[in-house]
Amino acid sequence: MKLRRTVCPCSMHCILISAVVIWSSIFFYLSFNLYGLQSKGKDINEERILALNYERALLDLAELKHENEMLRELLKDEKIEIVKRKKLIMKKQNDSNATRIKINNKFGKGTKRIERGKSEILNLLQSNGFSMKHEIARRELHNSIWELYYYLDSQLISTHNNNSKFINHIRNQLLSLLGQAAAFKNIDSAESWRANALANISAIFQNHFNKMQNPDDCKTARILTCDLNKQCGFGCQLHHVTYCFIVAYGSNRTLVLTDDGRTWNYAANGWNAAFLPITKCSFSEIFKLNENADDWGIGEHYKDKRIVKLPIIDSLSQRPAYLPLAIPQLYSAELQKLHSNSPAFFISQFIRYLMRPSAVFAKEIDLAVKKVPFDKGPIVGLQIRRTDKIHTEASFHDLDEYMKWAEDWFQIEEYRTRLSVKRRIYIATDDPEVFDEVLMKYPNYEIYGDPKISNMAQVHSRYTVESLIGIVIDIELLSRCIYLVCTFSSQVCRMGYELMQVRFGDAGDRFHSLDDIYYFGGQQAHEQVAVESYRAENDNEIDLKIGDIIGIAGNHWDGFSKGTNRRTGKKGLYPSYKAREKYITLDFP
């Protein structure tokens, strides 16, 4: 008899008891019959029949006994299995308790703190942050308050006696209002939500770049070549390579530097002395196949060209639609919801990939970062350019202009936090005398920066490895500052601002430029849309109707911007708060 091992322990007990009862009944029954036969003296045939039945009963009894033994063994096995299961369950419970204790020790020092964190995360997950309408409305309100401050600062505060109680009252009330607007940005931990969401988008871009720059077969990959040595400074050259990278991304090609960047005028060892290689594809290996690079062009004819050479953006005759300030359609809704300057965030992704430091440069950057107490409190970054571009590309700006906006930020931060904030600034400059000037005029400020870097930034020593290390350190440290005051005509300033977007999430409004608005050299037309009508009050201004498209030339930071009304063709000033950004969105690969 074949027994199944799926019988439960309770059933085993029942079967065993039943078997014993049956066995006992048969025994007493047989004994009773035998006793009766002896007392009544039955004949020999009946005795034989009875003996035969008795023998059969004994055989059945033996078989039943054997089955009972098998049942006992089975029950014993089941008991062992149950004990094992109980031990396993206890072990899992103990492991679970140990893990829970580790988690509690690692992520919190008390149940209240853990539960508070869980509640905040749950609220964010349930609401999925704020809607696009909410975020855009919040930013527009904040921007309108700033434009009001620029206007009143220009008309009243900077032109009248600063000791006037009326002027001081206006200024303090506006700074307080800006502090409240800044605090509103982080209601319900919204800053963390934005930063995390933007970090996820950034990871997608970086992963795409990595695959794009490291194809399975470099011999068959579609290549875009770019000459690193544009005749300009470091910031200009990096933005030039960034432009090449954006075009490679838009045309679905792998970017390769001419000669792999080995002939860079900033470093004898080339690009790889400062940064990681941008691709595994070698320039020399590509041209070993005796292939020639075709000139850049757009259209179906050029899609079939395997190797294409890209000129500098200044001489680009056939301009693709995906040049800055365009952003990918796929991410446009999320970026416009999460970031106050979506084009800057998009451009920052390319610069982040390009500026991954080599081991030597990473060590130098780490040493420089440790000298500046970024973990002690907010630090405002000042990038002050004084040498090569003054009176050509940019105007001279006195130190006090920079410090005014730094002080404004610190006061706004105090209104936002309701706390006293230590004044700390980081200075990046090509004029070492600036450090002495700051120490003399602003003794209440802690000053950070390296005058040696300023000396190396002089025109006569600019194209050296030491100068290169210095300028990279300045850009990296500026990007770690909480706020920037600089001139956006400076490529270094814009690079610091761009890398801020990688570090802080939405840092689109964490700057004050003393001249230009943010731009990318060689960009497409930067346009705005009028959201309110305006009638010009003098010959320097232009009329606006709701819906008018304006080609913006710049913000004068006095409440007015300058631009061209596409409808009327007239150029002039218009109130900045009456217009909003018109984003360029299109499909990228």
How does this structure look, described?
It is built from 17 helices and 16 strands. With 589 residues, the chain is α/β, with parallel strands linked by helices. Helix content is 52%, strand content 11%. It has a 5-stranded parallel β-sheet with strand order 8-7-6-9-10, with helices on both faces. A 5-stranded antiparallel β-sheet has the order 14-13-12-11-15. The protein is globular and about 105 Å long. Strand 1, helix 7 (234-250) and strand 2 (254-257) form a beta-alpha-beta unit. It has helices spanning 9-40, 44-107, 111-127, 132-157, 165-184, 190-213, 234-250, 283-286, 300-303, 329-338, 342-354, 359-370, 399-417, 433-441, 451-456, 465-480, 491-504, and strands spanning 223-226, 254-257, 294-295, 307-309, 326-328, 380-384, 424-429, 446-448, 483-486, 511-513, 527-530, 549-555, 560-565, 571-575, 579-582, 584-586. Among the domains are: 9-106; 132-182; 199-330, no CATH class; 527-586, SH3 type barrels.
Question: What are its keywords?
Answer:
single chain, 589 residues, five-stranded antiparallel sheet, globular, disordered N terminus, SH3-like_dom_sf, GT23_dom, galactoside 6-L-fucosyltransferase activity
Given the C-alpha coordinates, what overall shape results? Answer: globular
**Backbone structural class:** alpha/beta
Strand order of the largest sheet: 8-7-6-9-10
Report on the biggest sheet: 5 strands, parallel
What is the strand tally? 16
Strand content: 5-15%
How far is the N terminus from the C terminus?
71 Å
How many alpha or pi helices?
17
Compute the average pLDDT.
85
Report the helical percentage: 40-55%
Supply Rg.
40 Å
Low-confidence stretches: 1-12, 27-45, 121-127
Pfam families: FUT8_N_cat, SH3_9
Keywords: Coiled coil, Glycosyltransferase, Membrane, SH3 domain, Transferase, Transmembrane, Transmembrane helix
InterPro entries: Fut8_N_cat (IPR045573), Fut8_SH3 (IPR035653), GT23_dom (IPR027350), SH3-like_dom_sf (IPR036028), SH3_domain (IPR001452)
Protein name: BMA-FUT-8
